[in-house]
Amino acid sequence: MSVTTQDPAAPVDPAEPAERGRLDRFFEITRRGSTVKREVLAGLTTFATMAYIVVLNPLIIGTAPDKDGNLLGIAPVAGVTALVAAVMTIMMGVVGRVPFAVATGLGLNAFVAYAVASQMTWAEAMGLVVIEGLIITVLVLTGFRKAVFRAIPAELKAAIAAGIGLFIALIGFVDGGFVRAGSGVPLQLGSGSNGTLHGWPTVVFLVGLLVTGILVARKVKAGVLIGIVATTIIAVIVNALAKPGGAVVDGKPNPDGWRLNVPTLPDPLVQKPDLHLIGNVSFGAFAHVGLVTALLLVFTLVLADFFDVMGTTVGLAKQANLATEDGTDMPRLGKVLFVDGVAAVAGGAGSASSATTYVESSSGIADGGRTGLTSVVTGVLFLGALLLTPLVSLVPSEAAGPALVIVGALMIRQVKEIDFTDVGVAVPAFLTMTLMPFTYSITNGIGAGFVSWVAIRVAQGRARQIHPLMWAVAAAFVIYFGINLVKAVTGVS
Fold this sequence. Notes:
Number of domains: 1
Strand order of the largest sheet: 1-6
Strand content: under 5%
Structural class: mainly alpha
C-alpha cells in the first residue's frame, strides 16, 4: 500500500458542526483545513510509522553494558521509551499544537550507549543527557539557537547525519550477525571461519533486510515496523523448526545461534510496565571521566540534537504548510523547540536517552494531519503500548538489525548536500562520516570533522570564513583527542 498525500487545502465537510466547538478552536482544526476524523487517522498513521522505536531502543540502550558491565535491561527500557514518547508527544500536541511526534532519537541513543555509557555508569550517562536537554532548552529560551545553527557549515551538518547513518547500519550488521569480529581482522563477514555466512539466524537477518528494504522502497506505511514484525514471525517459525539455540549453549559459544533474544513467546504477553528506571540519574560523570571529557560528550549530544531538531522541524513545518516562505520560522516555533528541549531532559530522567521530534511524523502529515490533535492521538497510542512491552523480548536482534540498516540507508542520503568537488569540504566530511563507524565512535567522527575543517580552511587562506564558535569547538576537540598527552605534560592524573 502506497503513501497517499492528503491535500491540505481540501474542503472541510460542512456536515461536521460538532467538530467546531472547543476542541476545534483550541487546535485550529477547521482553520488549518482539517477535520477531527482526519487528525485521528493521521495520528494512527504516525504511531504505526514510528512505533518501532519501542522495539529498537531497548535493543540498543537495554543491551549495551556501561563501564562496570551493568545493563539497563530490555523490558525496563521498553517501558520508559513508550512512556517518554507518550507524555512528550501529547505535550507537543497541546503546547506546540503541531502534528509532530516525539520519541527517543536514533543516533543519539547509539551515541549514549556506545560512546557515553561505555565510559561511566548508566546513571551518569543519563545525567549528561539531562544536562544536554537543559542546555538545549536554555538555547531556545535565549534565542541563541539561530546563532549556533548558522555557525556550523551546512556540509558538516550533512556529514554528521550521514556518518550516524553509517554507524547505525554497522550496529545493525553486527547485531544481526552479518558482520562479526574475526581472528586477525577487526570485522569479517558472517560467523564462518573463512568469512562465510553461517546459521539460520543469519538467514533470518538477510530475509528481513530484503523485506524491510522492499517495504520502505515501495513507500508502504509503517514499512519499518511491518518489516520488524514480519521478520520476527519468520524468526519464531525458524526457531521452532531448526532450534538453533542461543549464543551460548551449555556454557559454550554457539556462533550459529541467536545473538541476543531467542524468539519465543513471552508469558505473559501483557503485563504492568516496568518503570523502575525513572529517576535513575547521577551527575557524577564530571568527577568520573574528567571535566574536559564530560563537557565534550555533552557538547556532542547538544550538537547532534540541536541540528537534528532544527532540520526536522523546518522540514515538517513546510510539509504541513505551517512554515514561512523562507522556511526559517513557523507559528509557535519557540514553544515547539521548547517542548523538544524538555523532551531531551525527560528522556534522560527516564533512562530512555534523549527524546526528539521524529521525522516519521511526515507520514501522518501526508495523511492530512495539520494540528496538535494528531500528536495527542499518537501519544495516547504510545500509552497503550506500555502494556505490551513484554513483546519486545520476542524480537531477536536478527529481526531488528535490518531496520537499523535501512534507517542508516535513509540517513546517509544527506551526502547529496555535500560538495565533494571542493577538497576543503570533502576531507572534513569524509573524516566525519568514516571515523564514526571505523572507530565505533560518533564523537571521534564529529571531532575529526571540526578540527580538519578549521585546519584546512586556515591552510587555504580562508581563516576569515571560520565562525568564532568553530574555532572554539575545534580547540576543544584538539584537547579531547590529545587529553592523554596533556595529562602527561601537565602531570594531571
